[in-house]
Amino acid sequence: MAKSVNPVVKIIGKFDDQVHVENKYGRHIRKVSNKKGSKETPAFKEQQFRTSFINKYASEINRLADRYAEHRKVTNFYHQIQKKFRINYSENRYLLLNQLKGLNVLKKPLEKLSFHEFGVIINKDHFDIELKIKQHPPGGKYDASCYSYDIIIITWKKGEDNGTAEKKHTQWYSRYEKVPTFDIRFKHPTGTEHWLLLLRIHLGDKNHALDFSDTSAMQIIETGTMNAKDELELKKKKAALEKERIAKQLKKDCIDDEERIMARK
Q1: Predicted structure pTM score
Q2: 42-226 CATH fold
Q3: Are 38 and 48 in contact (CB under 8 A)?
Q4: Dist CA 174 CA 153 (whole Å)
Q5: Which residues contact residue 153 at a Cβ distance below 8 angstroms, ignoring those fewer than 6 apart?
Q6: Engineered SS bond to 225: which of 94, 111, 179, 189, CB 3.0-4.6 Å?
Q7: Would you list the domain boundaries of the chain?
Q8: Closest CA to 195 of 129, 245, 244
Q9: pLDDT for 35-46, tens place per residue?
Q10: Going by C-beta distance under 8 Å and a sequence separation of 6 or more, which residues neighbour residue 103?
């Protein structure tokens, strides 16, 4: 407990094994802490490393997504990435990227505008992507007559932190014609290890984009790896998370099954 003092000679600061403090609440003395600063502990250093590792990739994805979203991404996009990375942290870049599938970049969810299926085939030096449209997007209040897609791929080389992005556009396609299928090919740089795929739809009229917040949507739709060990590690991670989920559910069921005292009739 702090001790009130009224010395003849005022001492402020550290003196021997005591610290003399004077503030708006008065004067008091406290002992000098013998503990090492928290910044020197292994736990702090580990947390510092994690934060740096997470921010490195979150910043990279945020920067590239912002570029292709034409600086219209949702304001908390970066924080959503950080949150996902922290919940299931891993030092494996692919395991981090895999958590981002389904994350919307723009305010309008992709599912509201685009009704599609897609497949990715990885060949020796390129990616082949099939984008099959199942249903035309709604015209909405702006009575859109056509639409087009942007397909963006970000690739990372093994041992490198910075990714490389490339974008391709589909033609403007009429909402009044038969639903289309688009074939997109990207070359992947030599040494590519991990990749992430974004899809953006634009509603338009007379082959020009309608420039409103609810006439475009963009989402991270897929991630992948060239390393078979990554896929194995992902399966183990998913199995561990499922085991943890079942254990929590069983614990909850046990609590619910406890004998309860009934009210008097």
Answers
A1: 0.77
A2: Immunoglobulin-like (2.60.40)
A3: no
A4: 25
A5: 127, 165, 166, 186, 195, 196, 197, 198
A6: 94
A7: 1-33, 42-226
A8: 129
A9: 555 566 787 788
A10: 77, 80, 81, 84, 219, 220
